[in-house]
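Could someone model magnesium ion with this protein?
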Amino acid sequence: MNEFIINTLSLGSLYALIALGLVFVYGILKLVNFAYGEYIMTAGYGLFLLGTYTPLPWWSVMLLSVALAALMSYLTELIAFRPVRTKSLTAMLVTSFAVSVLLQNAALLFISPRSRAVQLPAAFNQSVALLGVTTPLRNLLTIGTTVALLVGLTLLMKYTVLGIAMRAASDKFSTTRLMGVPANLVISVAFIISGLLAGVVSVFWVGRSASVDPLIGFTPLLIAFIATVIGGMRSLVGAVAGGYVYGLLFNVLSITLPASVINYRDAFMFLIVILFLLLRPEGLIRGSYTEERVG
Amino acid sequence: MLTVNDLHASYGAIKALHGVSLEVEEGELVALLGTNGAGKSTTLKSISGVLRPLAGTVRFLGDEITGRKPEAIVKKGLSLVPEGRDIFGSLTVAENLRLGAFSSYERNRYQEDLEEQFALFPILKERFNQPGGQLSGGEQQQLAIARALMSRPKLLMLDEPSLGLSPALVDQIFALIETLRDRGTTILLVEQNAERALEIADRAYVLKNGLIKFSGTPQQLESELDLASVYFGGEEGMGEVTV
Ligand SMILES: Nc1ncnc2c1ncn2[C@@H]1O[C@H](COP(=O)(O)OP(=O)(O)OP(=O)(O)O)[C@@H](O)[C@H]1O
Ligand SMILES: [Mg+2]
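Reply:
Sure, complex below.
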């Protein structure tokens, strides 16, 4: 039982971070950013390149890779999204597809279509005993990092002017500008936070497979979609809740499904998602965001 | 202080303003009147940068601000209290007010400004830590005005502040607007409630179908045209008046 709890908390934490990164931008721009998975990819290649070709210690490789994802997120906002922001939401969606494909192809072309092994410190995968369970240290690190990030982001959103402005902007964007809050500031910060989360996700995601490839961002993006369908797209709390509930459902299915159908686990998962869409289309947490678009 | 010249604006294919010109001098309380759909809110939105005008110019304190970003315009001292209050419902009263001071925040001045709002709107002190969405309509209107005042505006634009309020609250809001004017705040007031607005205004403009149909003092307005015709009537009253 303890093992199940630790596994679920660890998986749920990862999924919560994944979903939160997507919703940070959605909350403000009402844009589902399809390029989100590629920020995770960017940090993954950062881990590979910096870890393989530089003598930097592992912790600075990780920090730099996370920063790289944030930078990539910020750059895509600056170069790709900002020019089309005042056009239609459809233009933004198409742009995010384009950015996604472009970054994938850049990785295919300049690095390799094949997956690359990523060196992570051995301690990462070492087993530790806790509450009578042996579990990889990675799982505990995932949980700890997530808790720290959630606390940090909560403090930021609740007690800083920037955080208050971000919450206001996801409620009423143009009124927020009338308060003197620069639109570009709020949007850039949302992209940077989204990128930071993608970077942290990448460290743990790559930590599981110890490799990175150009399509690595696809599954996390799908997870973010599912988690936000479950938890709700309209609040940060919803995204986090959705991530944990998804992690729980996934692990429950893994345990309870008979061996003969375990390969269809994803099909069961999607069945649950469809049920959510039918019965509770707004997700578990309704949130307070309006659907006003940023003009 | 504010000079609007030949302003044109549209929503997509729908043209809402066909060349609006108006002026507000320092210390004045100017009323902008007109029926539903006349273009009053569009005028304020174009001035404050929420809407980019098609043509025309807006000058404020000697600088041209036409088409600038709303955040830049509010920083110059021109604040808009939008139609329908537009407070942040999920943010507390305190947070709403803090955002109001975003453009002009100074640590030692902030508390002072807060106390000033509490003196004008005691209810906001009581509700300080409550979400804005839990306030009544009248309280929300007070919060919206207080929030705008937190930026220490040189010119305050109010879009139908009395809309949807009970008669007692309407009295309260108009008394407040007078107080603000007496304290030296320049005000551009958009109102449906023409009679009340004319009681306190120094000058007035009447907008119809995106054009200024009248400008002058309240006395001139009352003598030159039948107010009712501005609001409910057809062209009879309007035809005789040219700007
Ligand atoms: N968001 C919008 N999209 C399309 N047309 C709009 C929009 N807002 C206003 N209009 C149109 O522009 C014209 C002027 O509208 P505006 O809101 O400025 O009127 P108003 O004088 O403020 O009216 P009210 O007293 O009802 O607030 C109207 O014909 C209206 O239908
Ligand atoms: Mg209006």
